[in-house]
């Protein structure tokens, strides 16, 4: 089995664009994905002057990757109310979901859909709780684990940053495989919207 290092952030638009690539990787038994969360955006409200830039970038991502950005999400970005983004709470949810038995790519996809399609306020723990319950997870257990999850999340983010320095990774998403006792960075950007070609490329690496 070939190990793939995936450097990502739940609140990274390009990572959302790469969600189909991750799904393909996760379904291929030849590969084992190790997820490295980046903690890109500690909880903060995005300045209204920057929101138009986000919408323009999302349009570019959609055009290149065929990822769908929902109307509810776009309305939140463009609206008059606060647009709060929080990589830390969503990363905690991602890790706790796995701890409770949800496959990593499925938990990641659920979080991305809730943000980029449904426009949910994922900075609120009550919203993440509702998402977890909708996935069949026990509410009480979820809340207990989330309450204890911050230290582990911060540790994993720091480990990701350390590894990014070692592997010369400068942004998200980045895919690196361990092959022939070395590291190979995958040119994933060449395969946005090309699922079959991406799968053929991955098979050529095994």
Descriptive key words:
single chain; 206 residues; alpha+beta; Glutaredoxin; 6 strands
Question: How is this structure best described in words?
Answer:
The protein has 206 residues and is an alpha+beta fold. The model has no long low-confidence stretch (mean pLDDT 96). The longest helix is centred in the N-terminal third of the chain and has 18 residues. It contains 10 helices and 6 strands. 55% of the residues lie in helices and 14% in strands. Strands 2-1-5-6 form a 4-stranded mixed sheet. A two-stranded antiparallel sheet has the order 3-4.
Tell me, briefly, the overall form. globular
By CATH reckoning, the class would read Alpha Beta
Query: What is the oligomer described by this structure?
Result: single chain
Largest sheet: 4 strands, mixed
Strand content: 5-15%
Strand order, main sheet: write it out. 2-1-5-6
Low-confidence blocks of residues: none
Q: Rounded to an integer, what's the Rg over CA atoms?
A: 17 Å
CATH superfamily: Glutaredoxin
CATH architecture verdict: 3-Layer(aba) Sandwich
H-E string: EHHEEHHEHHHHHEEH
Would you summarize the structure shown here?
This protein is of the alpha+beta class and 206 residues long.
Topology:
Layout: E1 2-8, H1 13-17, H2 19-27, E2 31-37, E3 44-45, H3 48-65, H4 71-78, E4 84-85, H5 87-99, H6 104-116, H7 125-134, H8 139-147, H9 150-167, E5 174-179, E6 182-185, H10 195-205
Parallel strand pairs: 1-2
Antiparallel strand pairs: 1-5, 3-4, 5-6
């Amino acid at each position: 089995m070939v190990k793939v290092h995936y450097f990502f952030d739940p609140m990274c638009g390009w990572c959302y664009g790469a969600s189909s690539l991750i799904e393909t990787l996760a379904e291929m038994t030849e590969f084992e994905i190790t997820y490295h969360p980046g903690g890109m955006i500690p909880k903060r409200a995005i300045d209204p002057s920057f929101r138009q830039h986000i919408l323009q970038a999302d349009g570019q991502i959609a055009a290149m990757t065929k990822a769908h950005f929902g109307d509810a999400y776009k309305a939140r970005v463009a609206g008059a109310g606060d647009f709060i983004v929080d990589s830390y709470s969503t990363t905690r949810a991602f890790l706790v979901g796995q701890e409770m038995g949800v496959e990593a790519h499925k938990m990641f996809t659920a979080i991305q859909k809730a943000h980029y399609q449904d426009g949910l306020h994922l900075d609120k723990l009550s919203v993440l709780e509702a998402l977890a319950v909708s996935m069949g997870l026990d509410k009480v257990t979820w809340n207990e684990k989330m309450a204890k999850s911050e230290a582990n999340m911060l540790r994993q983010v720091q480990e990701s940053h350390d590894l990014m320095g070692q592997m010369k990774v400068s942004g998200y998403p980045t895919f690196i495989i361990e092959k022939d006792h070395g590291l190979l960075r995958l040119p994933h950007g060449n395969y946005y919207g090309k699922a079959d070609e991406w799968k053929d490329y991955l098979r050529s690496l095994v």
